[in-house]
Design brief:
Layout: H1 35-46, H2 51-61, H3 67-78, H4 108-116, H5 122-137, E1 148-151, E2 155-158, E3 166-168, E4 172-177, E5 185-189, E6 193-197, E7 205-206, E8 216-221, E9 229-233, E10 244-249, E11 257-265, E12 269-274, E13 282-286, E14 289-293, E15 301-305, E16 308-313, E17 319-323, E18 326-330, E19 338-339, E20 352-357, E21 365-370, E22 376-382, E23 386-390, E24 406-409, E25 416-420, E26 424-430, E27 433-438, E28 453-459, E29 462-470, E30 473-477, E31 485-486, E32 496-501, E33 509-513, E34 518-521, E35 528-531, E36 538-540, E37 548-551, E38 557-560, E39 570-571, E40 588-590, E41 598-601, E42 604-608, E43 616-619, E44 626-633, E45 636-641, E46 646-652, E47 655-656, E48 660-661, E49 671-677, E50 680-688, E51 696-699, E52 707-708, E53 718-724, E54 727-735, E55 739-742, E56 750-751, E57 761-767, E58 772-777, E59 782-786
Antiparallel strand pairs: 1-59, 2-3, 4-5, 5-6, 6-7, 8-9, 9-10, 10-11, 12-13, 13-14, 14-15, 16-17, 17-18, 18-19, 20-21, 21-22, 22-23, 24-25, 25-26, 26-27, 28-29, 29-30, 30-31, 32-33, 33-34, 34-35, 36-37, 37-38, 38-39, 40-41, 41-42, 42-43, 44-45, 45-46, 46-47, 46-48, 49-50, 50-51, 51-52, 53-54, ...
Length: about 800
């Protein structure tokens, strides 16, 4: 088992990313069960009011944790129960796919009504996302401004756990190589859609930007007809609830169309595989079960309920399925399944499991699991029947097995296997002895690649060529993992959390990205990597844009006086009391006008008037966790919490006043953004990410009363708001899907998304001088659009 107190974001030198002592000088918070990835997932679910799904995600990732410890983990992620949004998806509802039973998606109108009422079951949410995506993909009513990509086309100098640096892009969840053409690749980004390359990854083209969902969990070519490819939507590792079923391409992956929705609406895919001995037979592993199809994926039958991570089919017609309840075997195309008895199977249910059959000898197979106690277990079958446990690589970390996991056997060597966890290991058997190499992290020389492994593929006809997909993108080895090259040029799948800008320059942005650090744009399609780790919120001093700030996860803050050049960051975190809650990415703001005020939100509000040189801690009047802030000028700060409360402090008589409460526009709803008019601070806009009620509110009297301005918007979470300083009635909001514009102070809304991919939009910033709106998306990079086109565009 892993050391539960070990840091899980090592830097290039093997030390924790970010400042020494990630929360001030007290030392980094111990890694929770399931790792940082689980903390992020829990927060993502809780921010929209899906407490039941958050609890289920914890149970899947850390089986047997127990109710009290599960609640502790959720509390560590988003704060104590009294400050969390209510579990709105606990309302009585019919059985759903995520329960592991057959379920049909509700009709669109019923689904929208359920979501508006706060019943956030996965099927209803997925239907609403699908219907919204279809509307956004429709042609615009009249000519108008269009979005264009700012990249990153690539990010050089990305992080590894070894000595070398690599170009990175974003999280890859699936890889498929054309069985008839080794130069033809397909890559699935977790939330960034399907990408195609015809030159072994030297160049890429996006193929599903207008699809109902860009979340991708599995890809499979039909070996009998390589022009046919299936993709399972909904990424099992994280974005499972956005799944809308199976889509198909009949031209090798260039164009795609829906093939089926039921029974997969609201599920995430882990694996898809064609049976090479039975034309039309396909098996699928999803978050809800093991499924089979006899008609090429058009219709499906649930064979076993419960999470199924891996399906392996061999040339002799055998199928293996690795599931939460063990390993199962079928000899009849997946119609019937029998359990496989494994020696020393460990405690059940498994946290993660994978199976593979050796292509060169179908009698040899492997099973690779992390049990309920996160003990790694590896078995080998020889002769087609006898399974034996074999040693695992020394130093293996299973802390994020639910998220980082794959297994593959070399196409030409039955005794060479690849194991993916946080690192990639290659095992070679000589006689009865196994030797292991960490082929992704080299401390003494050679190539390293990004950590957190998700997908593996081999090139047909070239068994030494290995493809690996991870949180940093796609990588290729020509020699079985000895050397690596990145394939991240033109793979525009950066997963941006927040953006910050320099108002004096229209070609400068700073953005925090999931597991790929903080990156800077200065007009080139290639962005500059300026810091490692998990990139969070960012900010710029309005008076002196050379002074910039970025955050890691937790209450870890750094400042640069050179516009963020790599190596110029200094830790300036506030002293945070031990045990105080904070979001994974705490909100950070600097003054929107003049001055050196910096605000940082955790289990209290932390305010500085000297660029984070010193701090004042202002406790919330009621227990809370800061989730959004705004600093209209140097003497005033507003902060919102995950519970929906709003507070204000002002600089008075040489000190900050205690936080005073404004009226709460919507109780128990996660405040996702705040905007205050610097010229009239009584005019306030607030957005919520919790579904089931109003999600954008306006006050004209300083927060004493509020008007709900959500009518006309889809019933999806809202994440950010920007107001035009030249026209206070003109504003934009970023939603989990799309950007929307109002020209009448929120009385009416229209999509503002022409040519913007159907990805989650986490943040928007308006450049007031260049008149450009920028959007940071999850897994489709950063986009911009001129805002002064025709009002009906």
């Amino acid at each position: 088992m892993q050391d539960p107190t070990a840091p899980d974001d090592r830097g290039p030198d093997g030390t924790p990313d970010g400042p020494p002592g990630g929360r001030g000088t007290r030392g980094r918070r111990p890694r929770p069960p399931g790792g940082k990835a689980l903390t992020r997932l829990v927060q993502e679910l809780e921010r929209t009011g899906r407490g039941r799904q958050a609890a289920a995600a914890v149970d899947r990732a850390v089986p047997g944790l127990g109710g009290s410890r599960r609640q502790e983990l959720i509390t560590e992620a988003v704060g104590p129960p009294e400050v969390r949004p209510p579990a709105r998806d606990r309302a009585p509802r019919p059985p759903t796919a995520e329960d592991g039973r057959e379920a049909g998606a509700p009709p669109p109108r019923e689904a929208a009504e359920r979501v508006r009422a706060g019943a956030a079951d996965a099927e209803s949410l997925a239907v609403v996302y699908r219907e919204t995506a279809e509307r956004l993909a429709a042609p615009p009513r009249a000519p108008g401004p269009v979005w264009r990509s700012l990249g990153p086309w690539t990010v050089p100098g990305g992080q590894t756990y070894g000595l070398s640096r690599v170009n990175v892009s974003g999280r890859i969840s699936a890889i498929a190589v054309d069985p008839g053409n080794g130069a033809h690749l397909l890559a699935g980004a977790a939330g960034g859609g399907i990408w195609e390359s015809t030159d072994r990854g030297a160049s890429w083209a996006p193929r599903t930007d207008d699809a109902a969902t860009l979340t991708t969990g599995a890809l499979a070519f039909d070996p009998a007809a390589p022009g046919t490819v299936l993709a399972g939507t909904g990424e099992g590792n994280a974005w499972s609830w956005l799944g809308t079923g199976v889509i198909r391409s009949t031209d090798g992956g260039t164009t795609w169309a829906p093939l089926c929705t039921d029974p997969f609406t609201g599920q995430g895919f882990y694996d898809l595989a064609f049976d090479p001995t039975r034309p039309g037979t396909v098996l699928a592993g999803t978050t809800a079960g093991l499924y089979g199809s006899a008609d090429g994926g058009a219709s499906w039958t649930l064979r076993r309920a419960g999470a199924t991570w891996s399906v392996a089919l061999s040339a002799n017609g055998e199928a293996l399925a690795a599931r939460s309840d063990g390993l199962f075997r079928s000899d009849d195309g997946g119609a019937g399944w029998l359990p496989v008895t494994l020696p020393t199977p460990g405690s059940l249910p498994y946290a993660r499991f994978a199976a593979a059959v050796a292509p060169s000898d179908p009698g040899v197979a492997y099973a690779w699991a992390a049990d309920a106690d996160h003990v790694a277990r590896l078995w080998r079958r020889s002769g087609g029947t006898a399974w034996a446990r074999i040693p695992v690589p020394p130093g293996l970390d299973t802390g994020q097995a639910w998220y980082d996991w794959f297994l593959g056997v070399a196409p030409d060597r039955a005794d060479q296997v690849y194991l993916g966890a946080i690192d990639v290991y290659r095992g070679d058997r000589t006689g009865t002895t196994w030797s292991w190499q960490d082929v992704s992290t080299r401390e003494t020389g050679g190539d390293s690649i990004h950590p957190d492994q998700h997908a593996l593929a081999f090139e047909p006809g070239a068994p030494g060529v290995v493809y690996v997909g991870n949180d940093g993108g796609l990588f290729r080895s020509p020699d079985r993992g000895v050397h690596w090259e990145d394939l991240n040029h033109g793979l525009v799948i950066g997963e941006f959390e927040y953006l910050a800008q320099d108002h004096a320059s229209d070609t400068w942005l700073l953005g925090g990205t999931q597991d790929n650090g903080t990156n800077r744009w200065t007009g080139s399609p290639s962005w500059t990597h300026v810091q490692d780790g998990d990139g969070g919120d960012c900010a710029v001093n309005r008076d002196d844009p050379r002074t910039v700030f970025h955050t890691f996860y937790d209450m870890s803050l750094e400042r640069s006086r050179t516009r963020g050049d790599f190596g110029t960051w200094t830790e300036v975190s506030p002293p945070v009391p031990a045990g105080e809650a904070a979001l994974f990415y705490p909100p950070l703001e600097t003054s929107a006008t003049a001055g050196r005020t910096v605000a940082f939100g955790g289990g209290a509000l932390y305010v500085s008037r000297n660029d984070a040189g010193s701090w004042k801690r202002l406790p919330f009047p009621a227990p809370g966790v800061g989730s959004a802030m705004y600093v209209p000028h140097a003497d005033e700060v507003l902060v919102g919490t995950t519970r929906g409360r709003l507070y204000r402090t002002r600089w008075q008589g040489g000190a900050w006043s205690p936080l005073t409460a404004l009226a709460t526009p919507r109780a128990d709803a996660w405040v996702s953004d705040i905007h205050v008019d610097p010229a009239d601070t009584d005019r306030i806009w607030v957005t919520h990410s919790t579904i089931g009620g109003g999600r954008i509110w306006h006050s004209a009297d300083g927060g004493a009363t509020w008007d709900d301005r959500s009518a006309g918007l889809p019933p999806l979470p809202l994440n950010a708001v920007e107001v035009d300083p030249l026209d206070r009635d003109r504003l934009w909001v970023a939603a989990d899907l799309g950007v929307y514009r109002s020209t009448d102070a929120g009385a009416g809304w229209e999509p503002f998304a022409d040519r913007l991919p159907n990805a989650l939009v986490g943040d928007i910033v308006l450049h007031p001088n260049a008149r450009l709106l920028r959007a940071g998306t999850r897994n489709r990079g950063v986009w911009e659009i001129p805002v002064d086109g025709p009002v009906d565009g």
